[in-house]
Amino acid sequence: MIASMTDYQYAGLMSVYVNEKPQLLKRALKSVLNQDYPPAEFVLVKDGKLTEELESVIHEEHQLFERANIRFVELKNPTNLGLGRSLNKGLKACTNELVARFDSDDLNMPQRMTKTIEWFRAHPDTAIVGTQIYEFDQDERHPFDVKQVPVDYQHIIKQSVVRNPFNHMSVTFKKSVIDEVGGYVDVPLFEDYYLWLRVIHAKYPVSNLADTLVKAHVNREFAHKRGGLHYLKKEIHFQNLLVRDGFLKRSQYLRNILIRGTVRLLPANLLMVLYKFLRNL
């Protein structure tokens, strides 16, 4: 268990936008508040104008956080700026070195942060720690998949040239390291992946826990959003960026374009099946 609370306090960081479902946001916030080791502060970025229902949930939960002696900071973008820019804004408001990402529609196991902080205590040089996640649609009691990511450093490095080696909604990172590498960059759909690669190439230790500590809400129809020419263009742009920055060799680039690019053009009914298969390669 955690021996000293003071040295390993952390901030929670979340962004929410108008299309979020109020009931999912409420449950997500409660799963943060109900952590065995709760945050010292929580920063919530409202990415543009929200509905009255969402504002009501935030107001109610804000009061509960404050009653639990958790500093609750609300920030608001005048318009929708996207996830990366919103998280950068929120990160600036965090006063703790350790920052845990929480998504506005996911459920966090009560022991998530206890296990994460225990890892940081045992491995203080680590810059990023993530976890495995369950994926559910309608009912979190019946997840339809487990999204596994590599645990040890060498396997994370190996996977990083093929696909994202972290589950974004599960990570906790050091603010100073994220600031050093430039924070989230506006690369639509790949903001987090690009950030992890820059941390990795800065030679910081990173890791994933073997524990499955987040239940991620995933619309099983999301395959429709993962395919088509629009997504393919973003994929190619991202891969070109990685080559430019020296993160990918030309042979790795061609492999990624061949596999990932081809998949983006498949019909949606095949895309979900192949998406699950490819990420387990």
UniProtKB/TrEMBL annotation:
Coiled coil ranges: none
Start and end residues of each Glycosyltransferase 2-like domain: 18-141
Pfam families linked: Glycos_transf_2
One GO molecular-function entry: glycosyltransferase activity
InterPro entries: Glyco_trans_2-like, Glycosyltransf_2, Nucleotide-diphossugar_trans
Keyword Zinc among record annotations: no
Family annotation (Gene3D superfamilies): Spore Coat Polysaccharide Biosynthesis Protein SpsA, Chain A
Record's keyword terms, sorted: Glycosyltransferase, Transferase
Similarity-based family: Belongs to the glycosyltransferase 2 family.
PANTHER family: GLYCOSYLTRANSFERASE (PTHR43685), GLYCOSYLTRANSFERASE EPSE-RELATED (PTHR43685:SF5)
Protein name from the UniProt record: Glycosyltransferase
